[in-house]
Every structure is written in C-alpha cells, then in structure tokens.
Amino acid sequence: MGKNLVEVIREAVKTNAPTVVTGSVVDTDPVLIRLVGDSSILLSAQSLIIPSGQLPLKAGELFYMLAINDAKVYYILDRV
Prior knowledge:
The protein is an alpha+beta fold.
C-alpha cells in the first residue's frame, strides 16, 4: 500500500528541516566561515546570508547558523 499524503509531507519536512550549526570566521575579506566540527567545509559569501545586525564580522568569532536548502545556504543567526 502506498504512503498517504500526510506521511509524504512529514518525511519531506523531516528530511529538509533546517539545522543549527556553529561556524568560525576564518577571514573577513573575502568572508570565509569554517563549520565547527567539520574543518573540510569552508563557506564563502555566496553560501551565506548575513543580516546587517551581524556586521562587522571578526576573524575567530563564532556564530550560530541555520543550515537551509539541504545545507547549501547558511543564515547567520547570532554570535555564540
């Protein structure tokens, strides 16, 4: 028996739900942020949404970020 619509929606939301991650500012010009716990991921300004209230960024600063769109875009939430 196939899945009903409610089950399909629940799975889609669970699979694509945003997660909160921590990032560390590596450089500010250009902006580069490394994910804490996964040093192989380095994010550039193209992958970041930086609210104006979070500027200026400083090297070494830690931020909470919301990973959205299957972790292709990161929204900076607040300083740690």
